[in-house]
Amino acid sequence: MTKLTAVVALAVFAGAASADDWTIAITCDNQFDIYFGGSTSTSFVAGGGASWPTTYNYTALNRPGSDYVYVTTASDHSVAQGLIADFTNTTLGLTTSTGAAVWEVFPAGRYLSQLGFTNPWPANLQPTQAQTDAAIAYAENNGLWIPTSTNPSNNLNGVGPWGFRSGISAGARWIWHRAPNGPADPLRGGFNHEEFLVFRIPGAVPTPGVLGILAGAGILVGRRRR
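Request: output the structure for the sequence above.
Response:
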């Protein structure tokens, strides 16, 4: 390992132990709650909302660098559904918008019986924090986190039926989950896409430059199990 690589690796690991500050701009069709926490439970509620024409803005201060960010959602199973947001780790100067490959989703609606919840999940019912924690733990313990779904040709901030959501970057994309028997476009055509859904991202994703240096040196640096 070169001295430069060792310094970079040390900086990444040091960041994992840091306390990070966040700003969040978000909306969802129809409902959402934002949590921070470990891989199997949440420990902090950052906010929530139920009006998609509104861009909600929140801050989350002094969060452990090892935290995941979670967004739990539910819809009315009618017309359209989707999540769009910018999550900015101001400590690292890094924004992760919806549509980035790092986003994952757990379709809790596929496992409601195993979780002991009402099956099917009712429209317009936002899960509690305890239900969210149960879903997160089940997904983590059974390896059930999967990539999000979207309509890649018609999902950028500004598309119908939502129009441009001010305060959220133009490059952010609407995301959701597509149930196997649901419409091809998971964002349009009201449907219960195995809801409720839990989305997540790692708390602090290393920047591409750092990843390139580490990959070039043949070093695998992970803040958490992927």
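Confidence is low (pLDDT under 50) at residues 1-16, 207-226.
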